[in-house]
Amino acid sequence: MKTYGIIAAFDSPAQLMEAAKQMRTAGYTHFDCHSPFPIHGMDEAMGLKRSPVGYIVGGMAALGATIGFSLQTWVSTSAYPLVISGKPFFSWQAFIIITFALFVLFGAFGAVIGMFRLNRLPRLHHPLFYSDAFARVTDDGFMVSVESGDAQFDEEKTRAFLASIGGQNIEVIRGEG
Amino acid sequence: MPAIDTQTYSFTDKGRFGIIALGAGAVGIVLTVIGAFTDSHTFFASWLTAFAFWTTIVLGALFFVMLQHVTGAVWSVVTRRAAEALSMTLPLLLVFFVPLLFGLHDLFHWTHAEEVASDRLLQWKSPYLNTTFFIIRGLVFFVIWIGLAWWLNRSSLAQDADRNPMHTVTLRKLSAGGIFLFAFSLTFAAFDWLMSLEPHWYSTIFGVYVFTGGFLTSLAFLTLFFQYLRGSGILAEQITTEHYHDLGRLLFAFTVFWAYIGGSQYYLIWYANIPEETMWYLARWDHGWHAVTLLLIFGHFVIPFVTLLFFRLKRNAMVLRIIAGLIVVMHFVDMFWLVMPTFSDGGVHISWMHFTAVVGIGGLVLWLFWMRYTAHRAIPVFDPKLEDSIAHRV
User: In this structure, are residues A148 and A29 in contact, taking their beta carbons and an 8 Å threshold?
Assistant: First the structure.
């Protein structure tokens, strides 16, 4: 069976954070930290870059605003021009509300869809779930997982390294993902 | 250069901030008073502009204090003392309110008895818009604001002496009621002092508009002030990039909110197209005023919005300083834009008295602010949330 990677448990959020720093220093890149709640400063400890989701939202919002404004301009000036309370066909003031609404709507779509895509969701199963011990990360477990795809990965050496930084219940995960 | 004791956070050296502010203020007041005797009409309009500018900023600081107490905010504890000290300049602003009472005839159309006699709308409004009630309301507003500022400061400073965490609870309760009183009093103050310049015109959202500009500018003021202190090495380790980031986010939120409120007012009036409402915007578009209006849209909204949108730019001290400075200038343009079209018969005219009045009132306000701030510890040392506030991370 294919080796997915190795997991190791730590006692506390502080130890998990310390472990993340050690992993990063040792040159691991394909590893993740799992905890029942978000830990402040973990992004930095793991060396994660800022999520690009903000730029997706920004791009989508700009697109929404452009579509909203262009649609109304097209409808009001060429497709179906109507005189409404004596105002010009191109009354940009009247278009702002819908432009703004589409700006927000598309931005929200960008946030939701972008977040799902970047997290590779939805997915129904993950190899980490082969481990029974892993279920504890939704309760009181603090775990590090290292993927076999990491350039540094070597089953014996990585196992020894995790033990040296204080990892317990080290477990190799095998199975198809 | 000012300095503080790193253990007690008390000021050991007050530096020259107060003296410079006092000097500039005194010169500004003297020049403005000379102007008052040469051209009283321009003087009153300039004074009202400058008075509205500083009063809204100081009220913004009062709101900032109450908002932090009500929400139980942790990050802002280290910044609170400066906002508290700024709110304690309200008695001085009451003094600066008095000159306006001598210019009611110059400023407010509705004080002209002969005009009211021939104007049904003004007759209808006269139970509210009359000189006596106007003065009474002005005093009531100041009593509310000074009372709140005094109480908020007293309880906060008492905690420095007795270390009692119960003050934090008292302050929260006081702020919850205070914010309610504040909303009403500021709304009606904006109606009285700024909206009634055009007594035929009305907008129910006007108070929110004035409040938003003031609160936004008080955030910009706090940002600039802490960067000034940082230049002298004061609170450099207590007020960090994380706190500036939060101030930047609030600046972002309120520059958007300002545009939202300003836009809401404009679009409704544009849609309805009723002459007695549109005339207010026509006065701010014709005869060159469109340049000021566009300056506001770009300087008060578009530029800060696009800049503060970016994570890195909010955390960049230089960028934040430039944007905060821009917002302060734009708030003055905003007040100028609210007040001056009433007095301009064709064209945008800025008088030298606008500048001397802003420096005069501002210098003395900043002097009193500095005296208040340096008289006590620079941060509330026994606030139960202080440690978390210093360690705050975004």
Answer: no
Average pLDDT over residues B256-264: 95
Are A77 and A114 in the same domain?
A: yes
pLDDT in tens, B93-102: 999 999 999 9
Residues of A with Cβ-Cβ distance to B241 under 8 angstroms: none
Query: Is B271 in Cβ contact with A94 (below 8 Å)?
Result: yes
Residue of chain B nearest A55, judged by CA positions: B310
Chain B neighbors of A85, CB-CB under 8 A? 273
Q: Which residue has the higher pLDDT, B174 or A177?
A: B174
Indicate if A148 and A127 belong to the same structural domain. yes
How far is it, in rounded angstroms, from Cα B72 to Cα B60? 18
Contact B267 A93 (CB under 8 A): yes
Lookup: tokens for A121: 């969701």
Strands (E) across A47-167 are located at 142-147
Could you report the per-residue pLDDT of A56-73, keeping only the tens digit for each?
Answer: 999 999 999 999 999 999
**Which tokens go with B281?**
């915007």
- ipTM of the complex as predicted: 0.80
Same domain, A45 and A59: no
Tens digits of per-residue pLDDT, B46-60?
999 999 999 999 999
Do A108 and A62 belong to one domain? yes
Cβ-proximal residues to B324 (8 Å cutoff; 6+ apart), any chain: B219, B220, B221, B223, B224, B251
Same domain membership, residue A164 and residue A80? no
What is the residue extent of each domain of chain B? 14-113+127-381
The pLDDT, as a whole number, for residue A177 is 63
Percent of chain B with pLDDT over 90: 75
**Chain B nearest-CA residue for A41:** B393
A81 and A68 in a common domain: yes
- In total, the C-beta contacts within 8 angstroms joining chain A to chain B are 17
